[in-house]
Design a protein that fits this description.
Layout lengths: L1 H20 L15 H15 L3 H13 L32 H14 L6 H15 L19 H7 L7 H9 L5 H8 L6 E3 L4 H5 L13 H10 L9 E3 L11 H7 L6 H8 L2 H12 L1 H15 L23
Antiparallel strand pairs: 1-2
Helix pairs in contact: 2-4, 2-5, 3-5, 8-13, 8-14, 11-13, 13-14
Length: 327
Amino acid sequence: MGVSMGFFVVFLVLVSSPLCFSYYLHPQFYEHSCPQAQEIVKSVVAKAVAKETRMAASLLRLHFHDCFVKGCDGSLLLDSSGTIISEKRSNANRNSARGFEVIDEIKSELEKACPQTVSCADTLALAARDSTLLAGGPYWEVPLGRRDSRSASLSGSNNNIPAPNNTLQTIITKFKLLKLDLTDLVALSGSHTIGLARCTVFRQRLYNQSGNGQPDSSLDATYAAQLRMGCPSSGGDNNLFPLDFVTPAKFDNYYFKNILASKGLLNSDQVLFTKSEATMELVKQFAENNELFLEQFAKSMLKMGNITPLTGHRGEIRKNCRRVNKY
């Protein structure tokens, strides 16, 4: 009896192990099912960024905003339809999230090459890496195998994504809930080394930071005066400003150097230096050592990209990233 039971246990482990391991994300996931997948994503992203430099930051941001709501499951890409209320309508995304047409184009090419094989969630993860690399940032191997959500969460998008006017403690809490620590928070904030922000998201710092009609005292006065020229106290909501005014299109550590000089554009940028000794120290380290920042950014992106992915038989592989499949 003991021998037969032992054989059964070993047999069960041998049979079930490959199934279990297949549920982990790994870079070679499409090696046989769609070997050209990564090249397709890279090609479309390169074309989009060549056409508009800002698109690199926009595509990177989409991956962030997807992963912070229900995990990296492509839920952000769903349009409103039937019972789905799109996350695109949230405060964090409305009038600012962009790049959806680029994802559509990538998905269209992927469907031609390998029908219903590569998920929209993986497409976002690859596009974020390729965008970072094109801007001069680090390379990392993207673990793949995510599947797509059949639902969206407008409330999750409104509540879980860090906002420009959040306190540092609120931002820390939002990261901590996703098992991202202070180092991840500061490193991932460094994505603001590229991209643009609208006047409306930082206007308060220029005119009425604490409700007393005074500008934010932690903002360099000369820099604030320059910003006020393009961001008036009323109107001009959609006027755009570089998050890193020194090297706005280059992925480097000038974002952190700007913060040291009290020239972080968003309130959520500057509080990394003014509200916590721990985050202040990380800002200093990254400002002094570009290689350290790039290395940590890649590590933190890998960690973020692994937030509760749908794998195995959960979710689906959408044919169109904007809507769930019809069965």
